[in-house]
Write a structure and sequence with these properties.
Layout (H helix, E strand, L loop, with lengths): L2 H6 L7 H10 L15 H6 L6 H14 L1 H14 L5 H8 L4 H22 L8 H11 L4 H23 L4 H23 L11 H9 L11
Length: 224
């Protein structure tokens, strides 16, 4: 891999070891506690806004295109390109729409930093989740383009898993939802590679409101 490709984020080719590392880091099974957070989905299910596979697919597609999926991908790319820049880290924490969502990104980022340091020998400081991932991946020499795609796929997979438990839907329906979202992950990753932190913004008001209302929901399985 040419150094120029790594520096610009244009490189696409992964070695076998790099692919295995990315798949492990961005799997819902990576030990960061992602299973405990629903990103407001629990409240949406409680309110009847998400009541089946198609509603789950539409909710998650909106998050990917217009919400935290897109914003986090942009901030991840910025952190990868300049790990010493404090701007993406500040934005990632400050722009969260609720206390629970802020706690979610900070808790996941801190756990990720601990896991990659202790388990993989990649030292990175605790930060909001996408920023921690971007910095660690750059330190490990992992190229940006596949990193961003797999990051978004992991984001979607974790929330599909939450939807399976909450709605509930079966595993087959869950896989159909995830398969339908893969082209969206691809498109949003490509968009994030051309963006910078000034392009961060969202329009997922229903999801933002759900994350606020979740704080007072009487029965909860998830922390957000």
């Amino acid at each position: 891999m040419a150094e120029g490709g790594l520096a610009t984020g244009a490189a696409e080719t992964l070695t076998g070891a790099q692919a295995a590392m990315l798949q492990a880091w961005l799997s819902p099974a990576f030990p960061i506690g992602a299973f405990a957070w629903s990103h407001g989905l629990e409240q949406a299910v409680e309110a009847g806004q998400v009541d089946g596979p198609e509603a789950l697919r539409a909710w998650l597609e909106a998050l990917l295109r217009h919400g935290a999926g897109r914003s986090d991908a942009v901030l991840l790319a910025a952190a990868w390109r300049d790990p010493d820049d404090a701007g993406p880290e500040a934005l990632a924490a400050a722009l969260q729409p609720s206390a629970e969502r802020r706690a979610e990104t900070l808790a996941l980022g801190a756990a990720f930093a601990r896991a990659v340091s202790a388990g993989w020998g990649v030292a990175t400081a605790a930060a909001a989740y996408p920023v921690a991932v971007g910095r660690a991946a750059r330190a490990a020499g992992l190229p940006l383009a596949p990193l961003t795609r797999l990051f978004l796929q992991g984001f979607a997979a974790n929330l599909v898993s939450a939807g399976q438990r909450l709605i509930p839907i079966g595993e087959t329906d869950g896989q159909r939802v995830l398969a339908a979202l893969l082209p969206v992950c691809e498109a949003m990753a490509a968009e994030a590679l051309e963006a910078d932190p000034e392009d961060v913004g969202g329009a997922c008001l229903a999801a933002d409101l759900a994350s606020m209302l979740h704080e007072t929901q009487s029965t909860r399985l998830f922390r957000s």
